[in-house]
Amino acid sequence: MKKFFKFFLLILLAVSILGTFWFLWKKSRPVVKKYEIEVVKTGDIEKRTVATGKVEPRNEILIKPQMSGIIAEVYKEAGDVVRTGDVIAKIKVIPDMVSLNSAESRVARAQISFDQTKRNFDRDAKLFTNKVISREEYEKSELQFSGDKEELKSAKDNLSLTRDGITSNTKAYSNTLVRSTINGTILDVPVKVGNSVIQSNNFNDGTTIASVANMSDMLFVGKLDETEVGKINVGMSMDITIGALQDQKLTATLEYVSPKGKEENGAIMFEMKAAVKVPKDVFVRAGYSANAEIVLTKSNKVITIPESCIEFGGDTAFVYVLTKKDPQTFTKKQVKIGLSDGIKIEVKSGLKAKDSIRGAEILEKKPEVKKEEKK
C-alpha cells in the first residue's frame, strides 16, 4: 500500500513538472496576430461640412392696422391661406370725445345753414319761374344751396369717420377692415377679440394683427465656423436635412454669406442663407431646425483606402501591403495621400487599384462562461 502511494506521488510530480514546462514553452512562443485585409478601390471622395440652423420664409410680412381701436372680429387663424385683400380682422373705433363733440357740432351748424339756404333757393326758384328775379340772382342762390348741401354731407362723413371709422362711400375700403397685403399662409395671429390695437405711423410701429408669409419660398438660415467659411461661395449646392422630416432630403443653393462674424461660445460664426427647393407635396413649417451639408472639395475616380489603414511617421504616411496570405506577411510601403472625408482617404501614389493592405487587427473572442442560475 505504501509503495502504491509513493508511485502515485511520483507520477503526480512528473505530470506537474511536464505541465509547467509545457505552459512556459507555450507562453514563450510569439503571438501570431491576424489582420483584416482591405482591398484598394477606385471611387469618389467628398469633403463636407455641416452648418446648423433653421428653415424660415424668405419674407414674413407683419400686418398692421391703419387706425387705433379695439378688435371687434377675427376672421382668420394661423395656418389659413390668404390672398391679397382678404379681410383678417375688423376694428371697432373708440372715438376721442373732444373730436366727436366737434364733429357733431359741425353737423349741427351745417344742417342749420343748409335748411336756411334750401328755403331761400326754393323761394328764388319760384321767383325766377315767374320772371321776378334775374338768372344771375337765381344762379347765385343755386350755387349757395349746392355748397351748403356739400358741406352738410362732408360734416356727416366726418362724424361717421370719427365715430365709426367708416363712411357710406368708403365702406368696402374702410380702414376698420385689416386686410392681407400678400398671398401666403398666416403664421400667427397674436391678437384676440377685445384687444386694443394702435395704428402704424411714423412714431409707432403699431400692433401686429397677423404675420403672413409665402411658404413656397423658404430659406435655410444657419451659421458656419470661421475655419470653413472661406471655403464656400455663393451659388454652391447643399443638402438640407430637417429633423421633423427624417425621410426628406431637400436641396438648396447658397445665396448669402455674412461679411461680419459674431462670437458665440468662444468661436467666430458667420451667418449664411440658402434658397431651399421645396417640392409641392412637402409642407415645411416655419422654424423647423435643420442641418445643411456643404461639399467643400471633391475628387472623382481616385484611389481610395480606409483612413484607419494609414500609419504616420513624422510627415510621412505608410501602409502595409500584403505579400503572403498564410501566414500573413506584410511589407511597409510609403504612400502619398490626398483628400479625406474622415472615413476614406485618397492615395495619390504608392498603391494601385485591387492591392491588398493591412486593416484592423482581428481580436480572438474569448469563450463566454455561462453562469449557473441560482435556484
Task: Please characterize this protein's 3D structure.
- The chain is an alpha+beta fold.
- The chain folds into four domains: 34-44 and 300-362, conserved putative lor/sdh protein from methanococcus maripaludis s2 fold (Beta Barrel), CATH 2.40.420; 49-57 and 215-298, Efflux pump adaptor protein, beta barrel domain (Elongation Factor Tu (Ef-tu), domain 3, Beta Barrel); 64-93 and 172-213, Beta Barrel (OB fold (Dihydrolipoamide Acetyltransferase, E2P)); 97-164, Helix hairpin bin (Helix Hairpins).
- Helix content is 25%, strand content 39%.
- The protein is built from four helices and 21 strands.
- It has a six-stranded antiparallel β-barrel with strand order 2-11-15-13-12-16. Strands 3-10-8-5 form a four-stranded antiparallel β-sheet, with no helix packed on it.
- Helix 2 packs antiparallel against helix 3 (135-164).
- It starts with a helix and ends in a 13-residue tail after the last strand.
- 18% of the residues are buried.
User: Architecture of the largest domain, CATH level 2?
Assistant: Beta Barrel
- Kindly report the oligomeric state of this protein: single chain
Amino- and carboxy-terminal Cα gap:
44 Å
* Topology, number of strands: 21
Q: What's the number of structural domains?
A: 4
Assign the CATH class of the largest domain. Answer: Mainly Beta
Classify the secondary structure makeup into a structural class.
alpha+beta
How much of the residues is beta strand, in percent? Answer: 35-45%
CATH-defined topology of the largest domain: Elongation Factor Tu (Ef-tu), domain 3
Rg calculated over all Cα atoms? 45 Å
Give unreliable regions as ranges: none
Give the overall pLDDT as a whole number: 84
